[in-house]
Amino acid sequence: MQVRTSLVCGAAVLSGAIAWVEPTGAQSKPRIVIVATGGTIAGAAESTTAAGYKSGAVAVDVLIGAVPQMKKFADVRGVQVSSVGSQDMNDELWVKLATEVNKLLAQSDVDGVAITHGTDTMEETAYFLNLVVKSEKPVVLTGSMRPSTSLSADGPLNIYNAVGVASDPRAKGRGVLVVANDDIHGARAITKRHTTDVETFVSPEVGLIGVCLFDDREFSRMPARAHTRSTPFTVTAGQTLPRVDIIYAHAGMSPDLIDAAVANGAKGLVVAGVGDGNMTTPALEAVRRAIAKGVVVVRSSRVGEGIIRRNIEVDDDKIGTIASKELNPAKARVLLKLALTKSSDPKTIQEMFDKY
Q: Which residues neighbour 286 within 8 Å (Cβ) at sequence distance 6 or greater?
């Protein structure tokens, strides 16, 4: 029997949920923890058609209650780590989240973790976790482009699919995954490409890890780069990470911002270069000055796709810069922050960009 229900959180109403009647005698199901951080998926608006909303307004238990169909394949409970829009995600929250996830995965009564997160910086959080989670158990991030109160909200199905992937034994050992819009992405490849479309996430260059349609999931590949237990990176509660700034290149780019970032304490810089990671001659001279002061500089690109290789138009060997390979500026920053906890040698860090 199916029963129509409504869930109310303040003024927010999540309608149309179907209560699931658990069959008796069911076999043991995977035990999944949903770790909530906030974001649009937990957002609430004044009406079902309002464009504006407040991120992180809906608690994790309400999000879980809105998708009772998950009970047929998983035992689910929730943990609230934060309630922020992902534009406010920072090092402190990353370390807190990673510490919580590693603690949960170390427990014998947890088979996987699903994380609800805002879409703005989800690709960065996913890649950070891909480098510091120390378990082969599935870790799956998901979010939504529409708030929970929206007409045709995409969050409930994304949660359903994320928990489904986290419950699937085939997800084990594939690193941190992101599930949205029926697609399964790898943390290293995924990027957000549209400001408002539901189909905002893509995985350029390497493609999807798999796809899902309700309870039908297909996995097509394993990540090519080392991840999770195969990286040297770890974080501990309360740890402070090195400051790394991103400098956006453009026609007529001034060297001033590079000099200012160094003067204000940046230990690393990522230049979101034009084309193949290029920049103006004055900016390149500022990069030389930064490197002479011990700052590590990575060349990435503001272009949406492609690989930044060494020694094409910029002599990386001579200058001492690092090529980001497929990593966009945001993800290059994530890896550089963690790399700097291990080394400040450009050759060693380049090897990390090649491997992770």
A: 255, 256, 258, 259
User: Is residue 326 helix, strand or coil?
Assistant: coil
In this prediction, residue 142 has a pLDDT band, given cuts at 50, 70 and 90, of: very high
Alpha helical stretches, state H, the chain? 60-65, 91-105, 122-132, 155-167, 256-263, 281-292, 316-319, 329-339, 346-355
Query: What is the domain extent for residue 94?
Result: 3-230
| Identity of the amino acid at 297 | V
- Torsion of Cα atoms, 352 then 211 then 112 then 21, to 10°: 170
Q: What is the pTM of this model?
A: 0.90
- What are the structure tokens assigned to 261, written together? 């970032």
Domain count, the chain: 2
Pairing of strands 268-273, 210-213: unpaired
Asked if the model's pLDDT at residue 329 lies above 70, the reply is: yes
- Say if strands 31-38 and 139-142 run parallel, antiparallel, or are unpaired: unpaired
CA 73 – CA 50 distance, rounded (Å): 34
Catalytic positions are 40
- Whole-angstrom distance, CA of residue 2 vs CA of residue 312: 62
Q: Is residue 84 domain-shared with residue 220, that is, in the same domain?
A: yes
Q: Is residue 239 part of a domain?
A: no
pLDDT tens digits, 80-91: 999 999 999 999
